Amino acid sequence: MLSLPTADTLRAQLAADGRFSENVLNAIHDIPRTFFVPEAFQDRAFENSSLPIGLHQTISQPTVVALMTEALQLDDRQKVLEIGTGSGYQTSILSKLCRRVYSLERHKPLLAKAEERFRQLGLTNVVARFGDGSMGWKEQAPFSRIIVTAAAIDVPEVLLDQLDVGGIMIVPVGLDERTQELLKITKHEDDIVTEELGEVRFVPLISDEEGG
Ligand code: SAH
Question: Which of 28, 49, 179, 190 stands the most exposed, by the fewest C-beta atoms within 10 Å?
Fold first, then answer.
């Protein structure tokens, strides 16, 4: 009989990848993905794959969550802005590794479910809000880290403005689903350094002017 993947097998699979620190592996292990996937996909919750969460949105693949989390170089001083709360899975992992996470979501039903999960998991350093993340979160800016979990057509300038000097932003950029590149952007005093972390597939970042 085939046994189902568990939190332990997922951790082992990500550890075998070789790119992820103990801190990131432990945070992923400690946040049960079963909480974040719909009833119909419970059997597959610890698979290393993206899964539907309703409203045409997806919970990201654990490898991609690990890659983005690692690239953010988190510690307990970091104030993180996340665009695209979705299921709240990535948010919850971030919350284990930083001081506070501010997360924005443009689908109210997804936000409500995610907030319920934060309560159930006792995560007290997450603030989530309904809104268009392409405008950032001006009242709380600047942030030392920004993570965008939906694909932008270009690096969002508004978000770059809300990033601290010395800060890091992780954002998938690309015109369509097949040609997205995950970018790590470091903001220095006088310049912006961009590194490519590999190809990814995210649902599009939709600003309120576009609708959808
Ligand atoms: N990080 C999520 C997956 C994100 S899917 C998880 O771990 O489950 C991308 C999410 O971004 C979707 O929920 C989508 O509604 C949201 N989104 C897209 N454009 C947005 C915008 N402009 N502002 C806020 N959220 C947005």
Answer: 190
> If you measure from the C-alpha of residue 121 to the centroid of ligand 1, how many angstroms do you get, rounded to a whole number?
20
Domain range annotation of the chain:
7-211
Query: Which of 83, 91, 146, 154 has the most ligand 1 atoms within 8 A of CB, as the residue to mutate?
Result: 83
Burial class (CB in 10 A: 0-12, 13-18, 19+), 40: exposed
Query: pLDDT tens digits, residue range 24-35?
Result: 999 999 999 999
Ligand 1, residue 89: give the atom nearest the CA.
Answer: 7
What residue ranges of the chain have pLDDT lower than 70? Answer: 1, 210-212
CA of 170 to the centre of ligand 1 (A): 14
Identity of the residue numbered 107: H
pTM: 0.97
Of 3, 60, 103, 134, the active-site residue reads: 60
pLDDT tens digits for 119-137? 999 999 999 999 999 999 9
Q: What is the predicted pLDDT for the residue at 10?
A: 97
Indicate if 60 belongs to the active site: yes
